[in-house]
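Re: that backbone. Tokens:
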């Protein structure tokens, strides 16, 4: 099924430190995803306990949280056709050395946890994660002249 969706992306501290924010945002822009939310976020242990709850029993949980708190992260909400799966496709597999060439993680990173990006993995988690990191008034609906190419007329 094709539908307009929203998804949550975090650009991790390694993206900020390595001056890759522009390059990564540019890839999403070029794909035709619409940026409807964008800000710096200082993550806290409390937020990370919630965000990475599925990893709480992993030996690397503590160091993952420390890594995510090294610098602020860039939080983005992207909108477009099947945004959740399309963004995950651009991002690539968790382990950058197993990710397909052409994906952001394969092209620009080598290791975990420093694989540059978080992206919601399902429509359900996207909805939860959007609420976790963004308030309603921080999300914007607007027309772009490229809408006619990326999402068809009248949408
Ligand atoms: P995802 O980011 O591709 O959705 P998850 O399994 O949800 O992958 O893991 C969240 C994040 O935890 C990864 O992006 C990576 O930064 C980190 N991570 C995952 N597996 C490992 C590991 O084996 N060692 C260290 N960090 C890991
Ligand atoms: Mg995940």
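Recovered sequence:
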């Amino acid at each position: 099924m094709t539908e307009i969706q929203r998804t949550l992306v975090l650009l991790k501290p390694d993206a900020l430190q390595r001056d890759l924010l522009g390059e990564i945002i540019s890839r999403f822009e070029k794909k035709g995803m619409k940026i409807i939310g964008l800000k710096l976020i200082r993550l806290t242990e409390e937020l990370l306990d919630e965000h990475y709850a599925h990893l709480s029993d992993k030996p690397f949980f503590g160091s993952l949280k420390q890594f995510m708190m090294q610098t602020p992260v860039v939080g983005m909400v992207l909108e477009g056709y099947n945004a959740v799966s399309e963004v995950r496709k651009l991002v690539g597999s968790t382990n950058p050395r197993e990710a397909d060439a052409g994906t952001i993680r394969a092209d620009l990173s080598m290791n975990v946890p420093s694989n540059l990006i978080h992206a919601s993995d399902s429509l359900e988690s996207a909805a939860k994660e959007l609420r976790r990191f963004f308030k309603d008034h921080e999300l914007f609906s607007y027309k772009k002249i490229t809408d006619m190419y990326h999402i068809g007329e009248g949408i």
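Residues 121 surround magnesium ion (ligand 2) (CB under 6 Å). DSSP finds eight helices and four strands in the chain.
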